[in-house]
């Protein structure tokens, strides 16, 4: 198990496959899968990423990220990361902030004038699934997955299940 970017002694992740985009719009290195480990996908920099098969099947963490985002984040940030009158769109945050920046904001929160993002560093429902949420929002920000619940998903690996159980206690 990778120790880089571990959350609460738990590493989660995501995968790859982006539909046609302008070549210069986003460096493909941030989403291209370099390797897979126990159902988790990583880019060449060991950063979690998403994987979408040609038939639209998403990796487990992207699917889980959809569920976890809608359980914890959509109340403020709107469905599918599109934003609301209460809080900004975040579907591009995983792309623009990068993994470390995204992690920092979610764990510690942030104030920007009258806008306040609360910290979630002690919320296991977020922290145990932060990589899931990250790869889901990265996939949304790069238009690799459409709005709505993914129709097909990879199975959850035993390692992901064990890590989830250990994190949630």
From TrEMBL:
The keyword Methyltransferase does not apply. It comes from Roseobacter sinensis. It comes from the Bacteria. NCBIfam families: 4cys_cytochr. Gene3D superfamilies: Cytochrome c-like domain. Residues 64-137 form the Cytochrome c domain. Residues 1-22 form the signal peptide. This is C-type cytochrome, methanol metabolism-related.
